[in-house]
Amino acid sequence: MNESKAFISGCKGLSLTVEERSFFAGERPWGFILFGRNIGEKEQICDLVAALRDSVDNPKAPVLIDQEGGRVQRIRPPLVQQYPSGAAIGEIYRRDDQMGLRAAWLLGRLHAFDLMRFGITVDCLPVLDVPVPGSHDVIGNRAYGHDPVTVTAIGRAVSEGLKAGGMLPVMKHMPGHGRTFVDSHHNLPVVDASLEELKRVDFQPFAAMKDEAMAMSAHMVFTEIDPDNPATTSPRVVREIIRDYIGFDGLLMSDDVSMNALAGDMTTRARAIIGAGLDLVLHCHGIMEEMKAVADVVPVLSGDRFRRARAAEAAFRQPDGSNEDTLRAEFNAMFALA
């Protein structure tokens, strides 16, 4: 069986086209990601997830989604309940830290109940970014708090809830997206904070959770480290900050390669991401020409990339024996009182 290649791919609609099936079979992405455009009803989602895995002949191929709560929640009512934002969890934590940590764990555990029913196994959560005053709301109320201690505590609890439910979390956006004053979907954020300040605040949650299996990069320039390249395409940020200072040796995927914070065409971007030392290129939009351009330049997983991918695959565990109805009632009561 051919080995997987170093990318994660989206698809265009509610079901796979003949062209998509053929492309995935030939190029063998390591995993897949779903967005709102891929979400119809329960059986359709289950069928799509199964078809994605079948296309690469891997019944355990990771299938990812951004299911945070608040405004970033790809699967919504009536399929699943609407969950509160990260900031709402943070509000409970500020009033009662133990209750806040319980709410955070429950959020992760309930996401796992929801997503595992569809066959989705990886949630791009927790958000470990620490916003600063005046920063762009691209993070905004997705953040758990405005200090690294709060963000770390809640982020760890959310991650533990996801893992208790049999899912893998993805920390984002490494090494920190909290200081952005523009939306990296549209423009390139530039951060001029000192390295000492970044180490004191932005990098702290990621360093504290460095042993997690997966993380997603930030499309941001840190001028004190590499004034010419965003973290996603910066060998220096990846090597000196993410791998060495933070100490993260897990599977590092890019944020979406299609985002306008990155320069150049899709081939240039994908090459730069791999060249910087990231393990996987994430392509989200399901545009076939772009998917082909990415697949043409990413390598087959080997060496450290292969090792980290296998470690992530081995990190899945069996769900605990929690009773969903009991946990859901407990969680919803917290927000009825909030």
TrEMBL record:
SUPFAM superfamilies: (Trans)glycosidases. This is beta-N-acetylhexosaminidase. The lineage of its organism: Bacteria, Pseudomonadati, Pseudomonadota, Alphaproteobacteria, Hyphomicrobiales. It comes from Rhizobium fredii. Residues 31-299 form the Glycoside hydrolase family 3 N-terminal domain. Belongs to the glycosyl hydrolase 3 family. It catalyses: Hydrolysis of terminal non-reducing N-acetyl-D-hexosamine residues in N-acetyl-beta-D-hexosaminides. GO terms for biological process: carbohydrate metabolic process; peptidoglycan turnover. It is an enzyme of class 3 (hydrolase). Pfam families: Glyco_hydro_3. Its EC number is 3.2.1.52. Keywords: Glycosidase, Hydrolase. One of its GO terms (molecular function) is beta-N-acetylhexosaminidase activity.
